Amino acid sequence: MQLDTLTKLNAARRARKAAVVVTDLSSGRVRVILEGEIVSGPLDEEVAKAFRSGKAGTIELEGQSLFLNVHLPPPRIVVIGAVHISQALARLAPVAGYDLTIIDPRTAFATEERFEGVELVADWPEDVLKDRPLDAYTALAAVTHDPKIDDFPLSEALRAGCFYVGALGSRKTHAKRVERLKEMGRTDSEIGRIAAPIGLDIGAASPAEIALATLAQIVQAFRRRDLVTDG
Fold this sequence. Notes:
This protein is of the alpha/beta class and 231 residues long.
């Protein structure tokens, strides 16, 4: 790999930005395309497909054989709330290839005994997210039922463009949440992205079933996400 290509990929990796390396198999010419970069012509659609799938492959385009190698930031799930649903989600997420972090300031819930082997931060989301900001490759699930804990990270997730934002609670609970988020400066369009009630509608009842429905909805959102655009 050429040094300038490696330099661009390393910079993208540090910034948690996606990149596709396009190699012309005839000439050996290499081009690095960052997500959000304007690409002209039919290559644009192929690059968009690659970003969504995350899969490398060869395509034939206008008489050229091109190899597209995709480099995506590892998708991650940030769960607000160390509850039973979080325990189940922590077991399921790695199977689907997602890193997972749980944040909850309530030390009675956020214990190593309940979340052995899980990245657990027993602190307020406001403090944690200062040093570990959310981004477009993060899914946020708020499951505490406590506005004092859930509202700030929900607002931050919408502002940061997280590919998935979900919140536990009934429609009545969510209606009150919507008003609070508006007071925090979020728009109707942003708030409309929140999956509430959380998870795909599979008739989930138990914490494990709700966790499964939530993970399925996260995967769906990731594969169907809008691509990052400049600005």
